[in-house]
């Protein structure tokens, strides 16, 4: 099954990736090839097989409700590319 | 050099009896790194001052007979994917080139409290995505056995550091074979524990239901020693298993009586390199000579492992990597350039009266995310994010993601059935020895198919170990993979050690 250029553009937007025209072409070809390979899963009979989301199927793991250490504002902000003493800074959003 | 020929367990004995100081041992590693790493490229960063200070601290506490941790004074290299609050943690990505974690991962915290000496951070495929370490944004790593070849990946730096005797012990991570495959291609021991055995807290996530941290070392006993140090329950990882971590190194030398070894006919099928096949069959013969019962088994869904993996892993990755948005931490695109680009596009669309184009034009924030991610991620990471986003998008979820989760259970059931008949499964780790650097460039699917024998253990959650079992005529290492049922790491180590003790491959050193 092929993947159209429009589909690739839509997926790139969903994935929040900006791709150039040549990148979109390469990506279309490579994804088509990989998805074509993955399509062999269709031949497996999986009727009645429960999906397995985790290797070790733990359920209801609870943690005791205790106040622990948390990051200070300063440490939490320290790696932000742009911030002031209060929070993260981003380009103006309103009026856009 | 001679001191670095010893196993980590021997070195620990020498440290404890104070025949050798940790400063001497650490200096020997640092000297060796200076001597060979320009050619190998295993380390992204080496922190000489910190390593020597840790070593001196251990030496002085030993001299004063104060208590020390269980790896006290032993140098360990760490893959650059585990958070260390005193180090950069880059995942070999431009996205995290300047990231200083605000906390320690549990594995790093355990190494520190065991008084291990942290030598530095090893190279890897960006965000652990790849099988050759060529996807690192920063440097290539070369196979110590043949510098023209890849060390494998994604823990290529971790494996090369041990193979070139720059570190006796090294920490890797394995999502689809990323410890075992480079161990095999570099002729060292690498082990992926049962999913949940080692905490993932502070491990930068790739595919959370598959990622596990594990040891690389020159010998099985050393790998057992390192695993017992990093394993154990951690309330900060909800998938961590609430079980005690056994002392694997205390039992590793005890042979298994009445051992039953299975070999899967699907692992010895078309496409297997003849020299690799011969070495793997010879390894089975060694087990027979040790009294093991060796029999053929079948893992019929194993052939769907790669297809299943390349739906599940990219899907989880596309979700996990959504956090790199240029806001909270990591790289952000140049804002002025981004705003002018957007303004220019708007002008062009307006003058062309392209209403649909204007409607679809990115908002400022969306463009900031898109440019940030376009500039911060390399091609393989983008490919996997695209693949995962596609597989999870409306209309494809059932056909790909849900289907893959069902096949995943069938793969697990194959193992469950096989382990009713045998104790361990043995076979080649890869279909071929190390390939040349650049050989797979531009062919992502062929690169993915290298994972054929390794991905199933991650999908099923079972432990797997790779150890050297031969060399090709051209001198490249060949790896034997052993797999055990979930939680049977002790059996895996003991079974591997039986083979190791009967052979000499682990004594060979890369000609550097």
Could you characterize the architecture of this molecule?
- In chain A, 34% of the residues lie in helices and 0% in strands.
- Chain A has 96 residues and is an all-alpha fold.
- The longest helix of chain A is centred in the N-terminal third of the chain and has 18 residues, at 21-38.
- Chain A is flat and about 55 Å long.
- The two termini of chain A are 39 Å apart.
- With 512 residues, chain B is an alpha/beta fold.
- Helices cover 42% and strands 12% of the residues of chain B.
- Chain B has 18 helices and eleven strands.
- Chain B has helices spanning 8-16, 22-40, 48-63, 106-113, 156-163, 180-186, 220-230, 248-251, 274-289, 305-320, 335-351, 355-360, 364-376, 379-392, 397-421, 444-449, 455-460, 489-502; strands spanning 43-46, 75-79, 117-122, 169-174, 189-192, 212-217, 260-264, 293-297, 424-428, 464-471, 477-483.
- In chain B, helix 2 packs antiparallel against helix 3 (48-63).
- Chain B is globular and about 80 Å long.
- Chains A and B meet through helix 1 and helix 2 of A and helix 10, helix 11, helix 13, helix 14 and helix 15 of B.
Short descriptors:
heterodimer; A: 96 residues; mainly alpha; 0% strand; B: 512 residues; alpha/beta; 12% strand
Number of helices of chain A: 3
Rg of Cα set of chain A:
23 Å
Largest sheet of chain A: none
Oligomeric state, counting identical vs distinct chains: heterodimer
Give the number of helices of chain B: 18
Give the helix proportion of chain B (percent range). 40-55%
Rg of chain B is 23 Å
Mean pLDDT of chain B, as a whole number?
97
Succession of helices and strands of chain B: HHEHEHEHEHEEHHEHEHHHHHHEHHEEH
List the helices and strands of chain A in order. HHH
Spans of chain B of 5+ residues with little confidence (pLDDT < 50)?
none
Short précis:
The complex is a heterodimer of chains A (96) and B (512). Chain A has 96 residues and is an all-alpha fold.
What's the helix and strand layout?
The complex is a heterodimer of chains A (96) and B (512).
Chain A: H1 5-14, H2 21-38, H3 73-77
Chain B: H1 8-16, H2 22-40, E1 43-46, H3 48-63, E2 75-79, H4 106-113, E3 117-122, H5 156-163, E4 169-174, H6 180-186, E5 189-192, E6 212-217, H7 220-230, H8 248-251, E7 260-264, H9 274-289, E8 293-297, H10 305-320, H11 335-351, H12 355-360, H13 364-376, H14 379-392, H15 397-421, E9 424-428, H16 444-449, H17 455-460, E10 464-471, E11 477-483, H18 489-502
Helix pairs in contact in B: 2-3, 7-18, 10-14, 10-15, 11-13
């Amino acid at each position: 099954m092929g993947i159209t250029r429009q589909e690739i553009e839509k997926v790139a937007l969903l994935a929040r990736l900006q791709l150039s025209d040549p990148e979109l072409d390469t990506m279309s070809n490579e994804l088509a090839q990989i998805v074509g390979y993955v399509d062999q899963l269709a031949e497996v009979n999986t009727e009645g097989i429960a999906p397995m989301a985790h290797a070790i199927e733990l359920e209801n793991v609870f943690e005791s409700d205790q106040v622990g250490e948390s990051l200070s504002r300063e440490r939490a902000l320290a790696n932000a590319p742009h911030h002031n003493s209060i929070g993260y800074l981003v380009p103006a959003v309103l009026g856009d | 050099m001679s001191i670095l020929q010893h196993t980590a367990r021997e070195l620990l004995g020498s440290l404890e009896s104070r025949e050798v100081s940790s400063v001497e041992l650490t200096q020997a590693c640092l000297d060796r790194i200076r001597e060979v790493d320009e050619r190998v490229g295993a380390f992204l960063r080496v922190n000489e001052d910190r390593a020597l200070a840790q070593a001196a601290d251990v030496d002085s506490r030993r001299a004063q007979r104060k208590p020390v941790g269980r790896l006290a004074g032993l140098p360990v290299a760490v893959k650059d994917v585990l958070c260390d609050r005193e180090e950069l943690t880059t995942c070999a990505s431009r996205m995290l080139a300047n990231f200083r974690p605000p906390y320690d991962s549990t594995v790093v915290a355990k190494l520190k409290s065991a008084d291990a000496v942290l030598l530095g951070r090893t190279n890897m495929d960006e965000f652990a995505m790849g099988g050759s370490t060529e996807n690192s944004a920063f440097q290539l790593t070369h196979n110590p056995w043949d510098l023209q070849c890849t060390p494998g990946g994604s823990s290529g730096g971790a494996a090369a550091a041990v193979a070139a005797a720059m570190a006796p012990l090294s920490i890797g991570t394995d999502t689809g074979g990323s410890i075992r495959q480079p161990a095999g291609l570099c002729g060292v021991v690498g082990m992926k524990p049962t999913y949940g055995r080692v905490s993932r807290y502070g491990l930068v996530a790739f595919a959370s239901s598959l990622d596990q941290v594990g040891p690389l070392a020159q010998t099985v006993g050393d790998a057992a020693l390192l695993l017992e140090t990093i394993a154990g329950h951690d309330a900060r990882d909800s998938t961590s298993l609430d079980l005690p971590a056994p002392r694997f190194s205390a039992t590793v030398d005890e042979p298994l009586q009445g051992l039953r070894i299975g070999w899967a006919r699907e692992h010895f099928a078309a496409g297997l390199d003849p020299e690799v096949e011969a070495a793997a069959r010879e390894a089975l013969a060694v087990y027979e000579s040790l009294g093991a019962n060796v029999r053929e088994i079948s893992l019929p869904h194993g052939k769907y492992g790669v297809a299943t993996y390349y739906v599940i892993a990219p899907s989880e990755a596309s979700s996990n990597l959504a956090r790199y948005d240029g806001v909270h931490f990591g790289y952000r695109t140049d804002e002025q350039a981004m705003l002018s680009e957007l303004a220019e596009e708007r002008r062009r669309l307006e003058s062309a009266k392209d209403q649909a184009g204007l409607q679809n034009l990115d908002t400022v924030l969306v463009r900031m995310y898109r440019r940030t991610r376009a500039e911060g991620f390399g091609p393989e990471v983008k490919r996997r994010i695209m693949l995962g986003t596609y597989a999870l998008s409306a209309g494809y979820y059932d056909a790909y993601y849900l289907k893959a989760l069902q096949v995943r259970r069938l793969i697990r059931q194959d193992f469950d059935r096989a382990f009713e008949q045998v104790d361990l499964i043995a076979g080649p780790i890869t279909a071929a020895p190390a390939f040349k650097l650049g050989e797979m460039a531009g062919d992502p699917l062929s690169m993915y198919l290298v994972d054929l024998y390794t991905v199933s253990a991650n999908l099923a959650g079972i432990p797997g170990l790779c150890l050297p079992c031969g060399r090709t005529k051209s001198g490249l290492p060949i790896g034997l993979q052993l797999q055990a049922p979930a939680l049977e790491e002790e059996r895996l180590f003991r079974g591997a050690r039986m083979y190791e003790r009967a052979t000499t491959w682990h004594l060979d050193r890369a000609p550097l």
